[in-house]
Write a structure and sequence with these properties.
TIM Barrel, 9 helices, 3-stranded antiparallel β-sheet, alpha/beta
Amino acid sequence: MKEAKWWELRTDGVIQCKLCPRHCVFKEEGDVGACGVRMRIGDKLVSLIYGKTSGWAVDPIEKKPLFHFYPGSAAFSIGTVGCNFFCLHCQNWFISQARFKKGNTTPPIPLDELPPKRAVELAKTYNCTSIAYTYNEPLIFAEYVYDTAKLAEKEGIKNVLVTNGYVEEEPLRDLMKVIDAANVDLKGDERFYREVCGVRDGFEVVKRTIKTMKENGIHVEVTCLIIPGYNDKDEFFESVAKWIYDEFGPDAVPLHFTAFYPNYRMTNVPPTPASALLRARKIAMKRVGLHYVYTGNILHTEGETTFCPSCERPVIRRRGFSIVEYKLDENNRCKYCGTRINIVGKYKPESSWLFFYL
C-alpha cells in the first residue's frame, strides 16, 4: 500500500478524494472509493494497487490505438484492477470491475508485484519504445503511473495513457509532466455517460481533459466505440468530429471509430455493423473535414490507412496491427508531394511484441 496523492482530510474528519470528479468521501475506517482501489486507513487515503499488476504484455503501439505516435513501435503495457466508470459494455470488465471490499485489503483477484523500477527494466529488456498504462483505467493508479513514468523518462522511454479521461485538472496537470501521448475514449453524449458509464458530466469532463492534454503538448488520439442503438447516430459522429475540428483543426487529433462486440452486461446488443463505422468515417472526413479518421475492430484496409491530405495517396498502409508500407521520409513528409504528416517520432518497426505473443 502507498499513501495516495490528491486528497484532503476535512475539518469534520472526513477524507475527500480529489483525483476524479466523483470526489468520493471516506467517513469510516476501511471505506473504499467508487474506483474500488483507494481506501481510508486511519487518517490517510491509500492506493491498494501501487506496484501491483493483473497482467502485463508487449503490444504494438497501433493496438492502443495510436497510429501517429512512433509507428511500428512496441509498447510495454501494464494494467491492474478497478475503474472509476461502471461501463455496461466493458471488454475488460473482469479486471476493471474487480474492486476491493470495505476494510479488506486482500486483492479481489490475484495480482503480481511490478514496482516501477522493474516495469522500466522489462520495457528495456523487450526493446519497447514506450510504456503504456492501459487495460483498466490508469488514472486510478496515477501515483504508480507518475513514479514509473519519471523513471522511464530518464531511460529515454516514452509514456502513454489509454484512458477514459475522467480526471480532475490538478492531478492531470501533474501527470502531463511525464506523459508523452494518450488515447482518450470519447464514449457518447451526456446521457450515454449517465446511463451506460454511471457518471455525470462525463462528456464535458473528457473534452476538458483532451484540451488540457493538447495545451500541454501531449500527442492525443481519440477513440469512439460505436454501440448500436446507443451512440450510432450520424448526429453524434458529426458532433464529435466537428468539436475536434473546431478546437484543434483537421490534422492535430486523429479519430478512431471502433466496433463494439457483445460483452459484460450488453450481451443482448448486436455487434456494430461495418457500415456504421464506414458512415462515421465518411461524415468525419468528407462532411466535417478531418484528415485522419480510422476504423477499428473490423477488417477494412482503407480505414486502417493513413492518406496524405494533399495528394491523397496512401502513405502508411496497415494490416491489423502491422505496418506493411511506409511512404514518409525521415522528416515525416509524404514521399510523393512533400506534405508534412502529423506523426510524432520516427518509424520504428519493432517486432518484440510479435515474438512475445508467439
